[in-house]
Amino acid sequence: MPSEADCVVTQAISSLEEFDIPPILRDHIDQHQQHLTSLASALLAGGQNSDDVRQTIDNVLESFKEELIRTINSLIENQHAA
């Protein structure tokens, strides 16, 4: 059974499904998900409620999405330049 941290992060990271993620970035996203789960676990263990933890994870993930979009755009530009 998934932990509360896993559930919070899985719900948040599902918003990445709207992006066409190049395979080269998949491992990076998986690693980021693991880090987010560790963060969520630590926050929950520290006494924060799941709604507050979800908000924190959403904020961190929003920043990650911005970087992800820049990276995807850069990969596309490099493919077109080649």
Order of helices and strands: HHH
- Rounded mean pLDDT is 91
Span between N and C termini?
46 Å
Radius of gyration: 15 Å
Write structural notes for this entry.
- With about 80 residues, this protein is mostly helical.
- The chain has one domain (about 5-15, about 30-80).
- It is built from three helices and no strands.
- The radius of gyration is 15 Å and the shape is elongated.
- The protein starts with a helix and ends with a helix.
- The model has no long low-confidence stretch (mean pLDDT about 90).
How do you describe this structure in short?
Helix content is 79%, strand content 0%. By secondary structure, it is an all-alpha fold.
What's the SSE blueprint?
Elements (H helix, E strand, L loop, with lengths): L3 H10 L9 H23 L4 H32 L1
What are the key terms here?
single chain, 82 residues, mainly alpha, 79% helix, elongated
